From TrEMBL:
It comes from Qingshengfaniella alkalisoli. Gene3D superfamilies: 3.90.1530.30. InterPro entries: Chromosome_partition/occlusion (IPR050336), ParB/Sulfiredoxin_sf (IPR036086), ParB_N (IPR003115). One of its GO terms (biological process) is chromosome segregation. Residues 75-174 form the ParB-like N-terminal domain. One of its GO terms (cellular component) is chromosome. The keyword Plastid does not apply. This is Replication protein.
């Protein structure tokens, strides 16, 4: 009988710790896992790029709004898409003597100072730059060159008040050396008569429009308003009236009842056709008659009535004075049929004088 060998086996007191997985993946990833990982990485990169683009677009949009509010956004605007109807202009009638020089400058060096417009749908309302726009329109008509079919324009943010737009136009024109007191006074009168402005008082209008001018200058403008109210309808060359002559006439008109009809009669009877001739007539009324000289018979003093009337078509501003009635509202009355207009005028006078029917 054979003997078996006995071996001593030592067992550890504690079980051995399990093996830690290797930090490195064992073996290679399969094709499907690699494709999924690559797609996930590409998706993350795309999302990050899109977020960066959205952030940049938001920044640019806010910057665009800020620049537009400041009037610093400029674009090329078709000249036939620009209207100059919203604001009454202080332009004197007739041909602008300096327009040809401006056109020559534009042809040689371009337009250095863009006009300013307010966008209104597919069209634009002119705020500043009437002469520049006129020059471009004439250049395009004369040459047919497409470069003059559009004009550089600063875009004013939509929503500015009418008073602010008027003030922008006035402040630009105040730097013109040739703007006359009669033109400034005419603009103040138009501001009062505009049914969309907030005042019926000429003092408020002058203050609103010419706030950057000195007190003395605003006083001169109001004197010229007095002059135009009295005889403006009979003046052909009002912008040519010098400041001193205008102030003398305004003073006499405010002090002497019946002087305005005399001046209007003399202007009509003289048939003046030049600025010089008109000034000679006015100079004859600038100083009081010498003592002992027979004065003209006093006439009915000039009176003026202004009011607003709300009608189905909107608000109309009315002004009535000696020999003149004005109705102003935002409507093109030239589009009204002539027969309807004649019937309306006849009805107007029938209502004024019902006893004469």
């Amino acid at each position: 009988m054979s003997k078996r060998r006995v071996f001593d086996i030592d067992f550890p007191d504690e079980e051995p710790a399990p093996e830690q997985p290797s930090a490195e993946p064992v073996g290679r990833r399969g094709p499907m896992a690699s494709a999924i990982g690559e797609n996930a990485d590409a998706l993350r990169e795309r999302q990050q790029a899109e977020a960066a683009i959205r952030e940049e677009n938001d920044r640019l949009a806010h910057e665009h709004v800020r620049l537009k509010k400041a009037g610093l956004v400029t674009d090329l605007i078709p000249i036939d898409a620009i209207r100059a109807e919203k604001l009454a202009r202080d332009r004197k009638p007739g041909r602008d003597e300096e327009l040809e020089e401006l056109k020559l400058s534009i042809r040689e060096v371009g337009l250095s100072n863009p006009i300013r417009v307010e966008q209104d749908g597919d069209t634009y309302e002119l705020v500043q730059g009437y002469r520049r726009l006129t020059a471009y329109r004439e250049l395009f008509e004369e040459t047919g060159e497409e470069i003059y079919a559009t004009i550089p324009a600063g875009l004013t943010a939509k929503g500015e008040t009418l008073e602010t737009l008027y003030r922008r136009m006035v402040d630009e024109n105040m730097v013109r050396k040739d703007i006359s007191f009669a033109e400034m006074a005419e603009l103040a009168r138009a501001y009062v008569q505009d049914p969309d402005t907030a005042t019926d008082d000429i003092d408020d209008a002058v203050k609103a429009l010419f706030g950057s001018a000195g007190r003395q200058k605003r006083s001169y403008i109001k004197h010229f308003v007095t002059l135009l109210d009295a005889i403006g309808s009979h003046l052909k060359f009002a912008p040519q009236i010098p400041r001193a002559l205008g102030l003398q006439l305004a003073k006499r008109l405010s002090e002497e009842d019946g002087l305005a009809p005399q001046i209007r009669h003399r202007l009509t009877a003289s048939f003046v056709s030049t600025a010089e001739g008109e000034l000679e007539v006015l100079k004859g009324f600038a100083t009081p008659s010498k003592p002992g000289k027979q004065a003209a018979a006093p006439s009915k003093p000039t009176a003026k009535t202004t009011f607003r009337q709300t009608v189905p078509a909107g608000t109309v501003r009315c002004a009535a004075s000696d020999g003149r009635v004005e109705l102003r509202m935002k409507r093109d009355f030239s589009e009204v049929d002539r027969q309807r207009m004649e019937a309306a005028v006849a009805a107007f006078f029938r209502e004024l004088d019902p006893d004469q029917d």
